[in-house]
Structures are given as structure tokens and as C-alpha cells.
Specification:
This protein is α+β, with helices and mostly antiparallel strands. It contains two helices and five strands; from the N terminus they run βαββββα. The chain has a single domain, classed as Thiol Ester Dehydrase, Chain A, CATH 3.10.129.10.
Length: about 130
């Protein structure tokens, strides 16, 4: 399995009055990692990739200005979709803060499910968890 690593910081706007990152911020971190993974794989992001499921399990809080490492990987490749796995780790001490996944279905212009696009399938097969 190939793990793609992206760094980002917890911004003030993402925190509550105690300086702890809001739970929804982790979905933004997942997206940052996913977009960087696709950029590294030279894959496009477009409207034929609707998200059909998201999941996040929180293990420890992230705080304002923490440097995070978002680990992103291909967790599953299905006929008409795929699942991308995510882990968010605090860089300075290696603490796992959260992990989860985002599932996509591939659709045509009429929004009907279709087989995974060839460029995604080829690249994801090369990096699939397994």
C-alpha cells in the first residue's frame, strides 16, 4: 500500500474557544490529503465523483497551530466506485488524532453509476492497500 503524506496546520478558524479543532475540521483535512494524492497521481477531480459515505473516528484532539500529517491511501477499489482511507497524525509526537474514509461512486453525466474510469482504475490498482 502506498501512503501519500500531506502536511497542514490547524488554523484558528477551525478551533473552538478552547483552541481544539472542531470535529468537522477533520473532513477538511481528509480532503486536503485526498486532493494532494490525486495531484501526485495526476488524476482530475470533477463532478462525476460524488461522495456517498464518510466516516471519522476521533482518537485525540488537535489544537490550534498543531502541525498535522494527513496520510491518504487507496483502501478499496470497486467496480463502480472506490474508498480512500485517511489518518491524521500530530507531527511533533506522532499521536494518531483520527482515522476514517471517504467513499465515492463513479457516475456518468446523467448521474448514473458507471465503472471506475480507466485512469483512476489503473493508478489506484498500482497503489491499492492489500
Amino acid at each position: 500500500m502506498t501512503i501519500f503524506r500531506t502536511e497542514c496546520r490547524v488554523r484558528y478558524v477551525e478551533t473552538d474557544c478552547a483552541g481544539i479543532a472542531h470535529y468537522a475540521s477533520f473532513f477538511h483535512y481528509f480532503e486536503v490529503g485526498r486532493m494532494e494524492m490525486w495531484r501526485e497521481l495526476s488524476l482530475p477531480y470533477f463532478e462525476q465523483l460524488p461522495i456517498v459515505e464518510t466516516f471519522c473516528e476521533y482518537k485525540a484532539p488537535a489544537r490550534f497551530d498543531d502541525l498535522l500529517e494527513v496520510q491518504t491511501f487507496v483502501a478499496e477499489l470497486r467496480n463502480k466506485g472506490f474508498k480512500i482511507g485517511h489518518r491524521v497524525i500530530r507531527k511533533d509526537d506522532g499521536t494518531l488524532l483520527a482515522h476514517g474514509h471517504t467513499s465515492f461512486v463513479t457516475v456518468d453525466e446523467e448521474r448514473r453509476p458507471v465503472p471506475v474510469f480507466d485512469d483512476f482504475k489503473t493508478k489506484f490498482e498500482e497503489h491499492l492497500e492489500g
